[in-house]
Amino acid sequence: MLCEEKLEVFENGFEDGKFKLRVEYYGKDARRLLLAIIRELYLPDYGPDYVYPFECAKEFWGIYLDPSEIVAEEPNFSPVKFTNRSVLNRLEKALEGINAPEEIKERIDLDKAEIVKLKKGLLALGKDFLLDERGYLVIFNKPSARELVLKYLGMLDGD
To answer: Which terminus of the chain is more exposed, N or C, with fewer CB under 10 A?
Structure first.
């Protein structure tokens, strides 16, 4: 669905021609996180009262989310000091449990990812993906998008 001249929203993500950004998720529902990102991207253009692309994406996805519920936070994680086979096995198991196309899963290189520990499990951070051990895989086309995803990580599962 076209929600703005250059913003297309689809079932598991969005693509924005203005910012040349594509973000998709697989596994557990990460649409609240995507809504937060869309709102931040378009807030300067629309102002805080009514961000049309955000409202359009909410309607398309059938999600009620008040802007006051969007909380940006500094990611609270600690680096995993030693990436051993056990840590990689946990993340590989999480990846296997996510229903994503094989070509997407094959792109995930856990050996090159930065692995950090959250309160609720492990998180693998790649240059174009984020894999949360709880069952979330977020793929993006620009390394700079990683900071936006991390900023709204608390939006997953309504946490």
So the answer is: C
